[in-house]
Write a structure and sequence with these properties.
The complex is a heterodimer of chains A (293) and B (129). Chain A has two domains: 3-68, Chemotaxis receptor methyltransferase CheR, N-terminal domain (Chemotaxis Receptor Methyltransferase Cher, domain 1, Orthogonal Bundle); 79-286, Vaccinia Virus protein VP39 (Rossmann fold, 3-Layer(aba) Sandwich). Helices cover 43% and strands 18% of the residues of chain A. Chain A has twelve helices and ten strands. In chain A, strands 6-2-1-7-8-10-9 form a seven-stranded mixed beta sheet, with helices on both faces. In chain A, strand 7 (206-211), helix 10 (220-232) and strand 8 (234-242) form a beta-alpha-beta unit. Chain A is globular. Chain B has helices spanning 11-23, 34-43, 60-69, 87-95, 108-117, and strands at residues 3-7, 27-31, 48-51, 77-82, 100-103. In chain B, helix 4 (87-95) links the parallel strand 4 (77-82) and strand 5. In chain B, helix 2 (34-43) packs parallel to helix 3 (60-69). The N and C termini of chain B lie far apart (32 Å). The chains are: A alpha/beta (293), B alpha/beta (129). The interface between A and B is medium-sized, with 23 and 22 residues. The structure holds S-adenosylmethionine. The site of S-adenosylmethionine has 22 residues of chain A, from loops.
């Protein structure tokens, strides 16, 4: 791939999805975009770039979606779901006892394994949530993964990664080679298309936000920007869960890690953050240094 | 070192399973059918059994029932690994005392996930991306 084409695609992806490709990922672009180009009847990457520059928005969408990594599985990493059951939900049950409602957002839900894992975890709580209004909103940039998430249909391979057999027996129905999650659990989730780079304030505020394994693809400034906007959509006593390779530390003061709970964060009291002396505030100078690199 | 008994009438499947289970840190013993598997269990109970369903002489389900009634036979974690992938078989196996169930075809990730599920293998580092 020639470098102007590569630079054009890198910039396009960064703008559209936040994907921050390093300078040496030509092979990755080619392996994912060549099949797409061929399918669109184009001879190769140069042709594809030309077409994109011509402003074909359907093609841009396909390119952006083709470059997302949608890898996910049920109860991925397990620990976050233990936190959900043992730390998050007990607190929510207490804190929202009067209101009896809980709002949960899966901010990069991919093909649905994460929101459905949360739905199953809630079901496993038995009667504790009887009479409660539970909302799970699962969003993703990619329309294609959302369709799959909505259908709730998974292959035999997918239901064997992370899903205990007891849960498969309890919450899925087998149809031939595939397994579909029960209508009752499907009804617990609203699936919506949403780009985290764009405004999401219309979603309202949440008690719990799962934002896992998506920010890792973004550069520092984008991460900071998203964290700061997420902080506005979370209740002051809410919880945020990040992926195993993600953290707010050194990026923003709006969230703080929960001690002894890996991957779990809570919003910082805005006054406390503002009042903190500069020496203590590692975040600000380091962010500046990173942005300047 | 923990021991895993791999029970399958296909030598190819046993070979594949052995490689996977050994990589997870187990010492592997092989058996071709339920009867041979029981002989091993009488000598020394393994910590884990990876168990096919359809086998000549004694099938996996019969083996499981006999094992669970033996002294110490409730100890091993039994994970079925079979082409019988219908919900009826799964329900029957779990009701009969199996701990987990793998539907063939299987791979290393699935065996690892299931072994972690029943506590045979510790969960270690979380997956990145
Ligand atoms: C690796 S998956 C993570 C799925 C799940 N959260 C997990 O941890 O298993 C990343 C998902 O983020 C989505 N994504 C990428 N860029 C996005 C953006 N700018 N806005 C919203 N979703 C995005 C991708 O489509 C993909 O489905």
């Amino acid at each position: 791939m020639n470098s102007p084409d590569y630079e054009y695609l890198r910039k396009l992806l960064k703008e559209r999805s936040g994907l921050d490709l390093s300078a040496d990922k030509q092979y990755l672009l080619e392996s994912r975009l060549l099949p797409l180009a061929r399918k669109a009847g184009l001879s190769g990457i140069p042709d594809l770039v030309q077409k994109l520059q011509g402003g074909s928005s359907a093609l841009i969408t396909s390119v952006v979606e083709a470059m997302t990594t949608n890898e996910t599985f049920f109860f991925r990493d397990k620990v976050p779901f233990d936190h959900f059951r043992d730390t998050i939900m007990p607190e929510v049950l207490k804190a929202r006892a009067a209101r009896r409602s809980v709002r949960i957002w899966c901010a990069a839900g991919s093909t649905g394994q994460e929101p459905y894992s949360l739905a199953m975890a809630l079901k496993e709580m038995g009667g504790a949530l009887t009479g409660w209004r539970v909302e799970i909103i699962a969003t993703d940039l990619s329309q294609e993964v959302l369709e799959k998430a909505k259908s709730g249909v998974y292959s035999q391979f997918e239901v064997q990664r992370g899903l205990p057999i007891q849960m498969l027996m309890k919450y899925f129905k087998q149809t031939g080679e595939t397994w579909q999650i029960n209508p009752e659990l499907r009804a617990m989730i609203q699936h919506r298309q949403l780009n985290l780079l764009q405004d999401f304030s219309h979603l309202g505020t949440f008690d719990v936000i799962f934002c896992r394994n998506v920010l890792i693809y973004f550069d520092q400034d984008t991460k900071i920007n998203i964290f700061n906007r997420l902080a506005r959509q979370i209740e002051p006593d809410g919880f945020m869960v990040l992926g195993a390779a993600e953290t707010v530390v050194g990026l923003t003061d709006t969230f703080k890690p929960v001690a002894d709970r890996r991957g779990l964060y809570r919003p910082n009291d805005p006054r406390a953050a503002a009042a903190r002396p500069a020496v203590d505030g590692v975040a600000a100078p380091r962010v500046a240094a990173m942005a300047g690199r | 070192m923990k021991t895993c008994l791999v029970v399958d009438d296909s030598s190819i499947v046993r070979k594949v399973a052995r490689r996977i289970v050994e990589a997870l840190g187990f010492q592997v013993i092989e058996a071709e059918d339920g009867v041979e598997a029981l002989v091993h269990c009488k000598k020394a109970m393994p910590e884990a059994v990876l168990l096919d369903w359809n086998m000549p002489v004694m099938d996996g389900f019969q083996f499981l029932g006999t094992l669970r009634r033996m002294p110490g036979g409730e100890e091993p974690k039994v994970v079925f690994c079979t082409t019988e992938n219908g919900i009826d078989h799964i329900t029957k196996a779990m009701g009969g005392g199996a701990n987990e169930y793998i539907m063939k075809p299987f791979d290393k990730d699935i065996v690892l996930a299931k072994f972690q599920e029943v506590g045979l293998v510790a969960r270690e580092e979380e997956t990145a991306a």
